[in-house]
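Action item from last week, closing it out:
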Amino acid sequence: MNAIRNFVDKIKPNVQKGGRFHYLHSTFEAFETFLFVPNDTTTSGSHIRDYIDMKRTMSVVVMALVPVLLFGIWNVGYQHHLSHGVMASLWDNIFFGALKVLPILVVSYVVGLGIEFAFAQIRGHEVNEGFLVSGFLIPLIVPPDTPLWMVALATAFAVVIGKEVFGGTGMNILNPALTARAFLFFAYPQDLSGDKVWIAEKADAYSGATPLGQLLTNEPISSLPSASDMFFGFIPGSIGETSTFLILIGGLFLILTGIGSWRIMISVFAGGFALALLFNILGPIVAPDNAYMAIPPYYHLIMGGFAFGAVYMATDPVSASQTNRGKWIYGILIGVIAVLIRVLNPAYPEGMMLAILLMNVFAPLIDHYVVEANIKKRLKRYQKAQLATT
């Protein structure tokens, strides 16, 4: 590392103010702080800095996502060979999956970081670190057969419209990765829904529907994959959303490292399960033909993108609620709305995306009323103490 440090220090004067390539300062700073913890000194405000800066925080999230990505690569190959009736080896599945998934990952990073660097150079500020995670998330929440040009277009939309127009990382009101997913869903619904997009190059005679899709077409509940297959992820779906088991492992890693909010994760699952249980009880009375009400409540937590959204999307520290009480309210409402959309609106069987984006908008309002309620509570306590002393 000393050799790299010396090399960086040698070229650094050229990109600083007055240097020959000073206009590349933002680009240089991005690579330097990615390799080494910055030694900046504060001149005002708080004088205590933690070595866990934004880049290190984002790196931890990426580490939590790696097992999900690797399983997604294998599952893409597994589902493809399964549809053709071929029992392929582990490496054959990985090789096929890698051919499908890695190009999407590369396009996401190249387009997103390219725009980030361009904005940083034009505005003369540092490169935002947030896209380290967003660039990893976007490939995980799309079907494996998504055309690369669509991925590029959605990524550009998410970075420019979803983030940069608000001022960059830390200023966006919506989760950037979900903004990309929403753009694709509404702009190209034929490539983001139905039973033809979840298995890459599937056999024509093979059903490629996800469990949510099967319920939408009123297939009997007995035809759904087993609960264990849905929990461990041996089902068609978006690249990184099928394995609830690995998603929970990643969530536990984020909680132990202090990066992810356990309040939001637990409340999302609790809210979704509570409403699914209520629907399951009332289903035979109010809507006996609604398959989404008839399934066991915990199925909602292991189908589609519910778990992935709860762990990696709802906990976005920028677009989520910031107060502790607000996080509980925010998470419960996400779980409730996601199940509500699934059960009552068959046009959108995957309700998690819309639920999180909706609550992203209301997160500041939740925090506002939580803070106001706390102020009023403390004011009453103060007034009560004043009366007691007089």
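Closing note: The radius of gyration is 23 Å.
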